[in-house]
Amino acid sequence: MILSEVREYVKERGRVTLADIVLHFDSDPESVRPMLEIWIKKGKIRKEMLTSACGSSCNACDTATTEIYTWNGPKAA
């Protein structure tokens, strides 16, 4: 997995969870987040956090499933 592959994966899908990226690249969140951070700083990707979908505030959800990354530019052709 290289930096441009992560960018292309998010660009092609438009919006993905951290868990999706980790699964696709057979990696771990601690390896992927720094790469995503580079694209966030460049303004190409935006990070969002989902609020609790179940309505509770127990915070039992895995952060990898609630961390969303969105492509912040033109869609892939």
From TrEMBL:
Gene3D superfamilies assigned to the protein according to its UniProt record, in alphabetical order: Winged helix-like DNA-binding domain superfamily/Winged helix DNA-binding domain
A family per Pfam: FeoC
Domain Transcriptional regulator HTH-type FeoC: 2-70
InterPro entries: Tscrpt_reg_HTH_FeoC, WH-like_DNA-bd_sf, WH_DNA-bd_sf
Spans through the membrane: none
Name this polypeptide is given: Sugar metabolism transcriptional regulator
Organism this protein belongs to: Solemya elarraichensis gill symbiont
